[in-house]
Amino acid sequence: MKLVFATNNSNKLKEVQALLPKNITLLSLQDIGCLEDIPETQLTIEGNAMQKASYIKTHYGYDCFADDTGLEVSALNGAPGVYSARYAGEQRDANDNMTKLLTELQLKDDRSAQFKTVIALQINGELKTFTGICEGHITIEKSGEHGFGYDPIFQPNGYTQTFAEMDLKLKNQIGHRGKAVKQLVDFLN
Fold first, then answer.
1. Residues 71-98: what's their mean pLDDT?
2. Does residue 68 carry a catalytic annotation?
3. Which of 51, 58, 99, 133 is the most buried (most CB within 10 A)?
């Protein structure tokens, strides 16, 4: 089976490919000649994932899945949420985003947060969604070299390492994206 994963993020592509069984061949947007920015104009994580999956099916004709992920911080009423990638501006810089978040949490006691991934699968004329959540908290400072995005400041509950300190196998086992991809794979099987 061939499926398009509607992302230009090579880190996400690598994470998801590691979770898929060998009988599923993953195609990137580059593989299908999609070089434009896919619109993400919805107000929810679910909405953005569905919008991206539908865009690829409509414009390129491929069965595909798309994900959207947000970091939801309790003390900030769920922010940055759907705006996680652009939290510090349209430049989408992970360090700027983390710096802004750490600054906003400086005087907050509650540092609880959760990562939420929604995968939208457009296949055989149907649209299905799968949601993965990983609860944890925001650390005081950045730690770790692996991962991407907010990984250096997110520590999952029950662990002493941030996502950026974990190897990919462990992160995929306990993380939000891994949980959503497992549901996707179960459905495809």
1. 94
2. yes
3. 51
